[in-house]
Amino acid sequence: MKQLRHQLKLATMLGLLVAGLAGAFQNALALDAAGEGRRAWLKYNCYGCHGMRAGGGMGPAIAGEGEEIYEAVTYGKGEGMPAYGTLVNGTEIANMATYLRSINSSGEPMFLHWWELVPTQ
């Protein structure tokens, strides 16, 4: 009985250690604000109108834009830009602004697999 309790304690401690290491590893691999902005850019299909790197398409070029996108994303603009205020939160918009400012810089994220925790491509 004593040995069983000892084994259970060791198993519990090992489980907690593994869970803690997994969480730390996941946090270490988390994307920065520009990466999370790229993720949102792809997830919400912004590139469909503004181009893959925000150089324009049927929507205007917005590469380099910053916080001024908040109102357009939240409420829409004119007849072309729909409102995404019920889908996108303020953090995602701020991250997209950071991504847009990172375009053509050495820090620009270029991945396509936005659905992966840490995009591989």
TrEMBL record:
One of its GO terms (molecular function) is electron transfer activity. Residues 32-104 form the Cytochrome c domain. InterPro entries: Cyt_c-like_dom, Cyt_c-like_dom_sf. Residues 1-24 form the signal peptide. Gene3D superfamilies: Cytochrome c-like domain. Keywords: Heme, Iron, Metal-binding, Signal. It comes from the Bacteria. Pfam families: Cytochrome_CBB3. The keyword Metal-binding applies. The keyword Calcium does not apply. This is Cytochrome C.
